[in-house]
Amino acid sequence: MRYEIEYGDGVLPIEISRLYMLEHTLPKTVVESPHLESHFFQDAESSGFLRSIADGDRRDSNIAIVLDNPFQCPNSKKILDSLMDLLEPLGTPLSNITLILAIPKHLRSNLDPLMSYLGNPGHRDCVVQVHDEKRESSLRHLGDSHTRSIPVYMNSRYTDATHRILLSSVRPSIFTGVTGGAASISSGICGQKTLHKFHRIVALNETGLFNVDGVVAETMNEITTLCPPDLAITTTHDNSGTLARIAVGDLQTSWASAIKDAQSITAARVQRRADIAIVGAGGRGFDGTLYDALESLHAGFTVTRTGGTILLIAECSYGPGPDGFVETVSLSESEQDVITHAETAFENGMERSRFFMKVLESRNLVICSRMRESLVTEKLHCVGVRDPQEGLDIATTKLGSHSKVTLVQNGSNINPVMD
Prior knowledge:
alpha/beta; 2-enoyl-CoA Hydratase, Chain A, domain 1; Rossmann fold; 2 domains; 6-stranded parallel β-sheet; 6-stranded mixed β-sheet
C-alpha cells in the first residue's frame, strides 16, 4: 500500500508491501466544532481580562502577545484574528500592540513564509518582533528562580507590557513533558543566560511524556511565575492538525485543561512492539532541523523492540541543529557520556543529545532527510538516505521482509501506549 508522509512543506510517498505485518498507529481524530470560535469569545470576555483593558487608560496601555512557534499551531491565524477582533474595539492603539514571535533560529532569516501563514498581521499597524535570546538590550532581568537560582531574563516588550497574552499549543514532549503554557515562556521568550541553565536541567533530568510534576516542570513554572501572562490561550489539536479545543483563562487553569485534553487525544494503543517503525516528524514546523524532529523519535522508540530499526522521515532542510547537539553526539558512545558532558561542560543543544544516544544504544536509526549522508554517518552514527523507500529496504535487509512494521505518520503529536 502507498502512504504519504509529511516532509517540510510537502510529502514523501512510501510503498509498504503486503508481505509486512503492518500496524498503522493512529491516535483519536476529532471533528472541529463549529462553535469553537464563539466559545473562545465568551471565555475571553468572562475571564475579566478584556474588562481590565477597557477599564484602564487605553491610550497609555500596551499589549504584548506571545505566539509560540505558530507553524506548530495549525489554527494560529484564525485565533490571532479572533483575538485582534476582540482587542480593537477596546480603544488601545494598534501601534501599542506587539506580537512577539517565539520561533527557532532557522526561521528568523526569512519571515515571509511565516507572515503569510499568519495573514500578515503587521498590516493591522501592530508591531511585530522576533524574540532574540542573545540580544541583551531587549531583555529584562527579573531576578532568580526560587529553587535552583536560575537568573531569569525575559523579553522586555513582554515584561514591560501593561497586558500580557500567550498563545500556545499543547503536545506531548519527551524533553519538557508537554509544550505550551510555562514551557512556551521558559523556552520561547527568555534570554541566553536563562536558557543555558534551564536546558542543562533538561539534559540532566529525564522527564517523559505528560510529566508535569518533575524537576523540569517545577523549573519552568518557577521561571514563568516571575512574569506570567495575564491571559493564556492554549490550543489542542489531533494528529491531523484539526483544532480540538481552545482553553482560555489564567495560565495554570488554561494549561492544565489543555494538557488533560491532549492526553486523551494523543493516546494510541499499540498491541505489540514492531521490528521496524516508520515515523514522520510532522512536516513544516516540526522537521526544520533534526533537533526539532527529535520529539517524534520517542514514538518510534516506544513502538519498536530492542534491536529494531526506526526510519525517521524529517526534511531537516536547515541541517542537524545546534552545534552543541551535533558535537556531543559525535563525541559520545552512550547516554552516560552525554550526561558526563552536560555535568562538566554543558552547551545548548546537549539537552536533546541524551535521548538521541539513548535511542542509539538499543535501536538502529535510519534518517531520511536532506542532510548530507556523510554527516549523518560520521557525526550522528546513523544511516542517512534521501528516499524513504531506500530506508525501508535497508531495514528489511537487516531484519527480514516478513518483519512487523508500525507506521506513525506524525510522531510529534502522539503518545503510544502499549497494551
